[in-house]
Write a sequence for this structure.
């Protein structure tokens, strides 16, 4: 079974995420043993960000790393069913994501559109919105 990075590559709807992971130097880490829980925004989710935001992040590696690690829960494989037992999880970035399972599964303001995509070293939950850690404040697009 492929790892979380190869699973995302094979899905074909995560080109922006995979590019960002490679630019930030994080892809190799997510190929490690894990386990990891990854909230993976689709290319469509990235396209909902204000124009120029993705380009700005790809040029600001420290900010990009914060955004990407905010989507990863280290050392845990948390299924959608297990998310119903908690109201928050701590990310690799160090902040907390709020979990709400009252109507499907939501992580902060992102809806899980496809839960429990199995990978060799964890699980991926596909989300419809890019999560931005509060520590970054408002992202300014490249003008």
């Amino acid at each position: 079974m492929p790892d979380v990075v190869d699973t995302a590559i094979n899905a074909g709807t995560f080109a922006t995420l995979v590019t960002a992971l490679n630019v930030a130097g994080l892809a190799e880490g997510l190929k490690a043993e894990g386990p990891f829980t990854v909230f993976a925004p689709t290319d469509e989710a990235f396209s909902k960000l204000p124009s120029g935001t993705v380009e700005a992040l790809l040029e600001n590696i420290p900010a990009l790393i914060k955004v990407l690690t905010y989507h990863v829960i280290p050392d845990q494989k948390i299924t959608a069913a297990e998310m119903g037992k908690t109201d928050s999880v701590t990310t690799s970035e160090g902040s907390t994501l709020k979990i709400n399972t009252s109507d499907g599964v939501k992580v902060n303001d992102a809806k899980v559109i496809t839960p429990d995509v199995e990978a060799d070293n964890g699980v991926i939950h596909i989300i419809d919105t890019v999560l931005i850690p509060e520590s970054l404040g408002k992202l300014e697009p490249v003008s």
User: Anything to note?
Assistant: The first strand starts at residue 36 and ends at 41. The two ends are 42 Å apart (CA to CA).
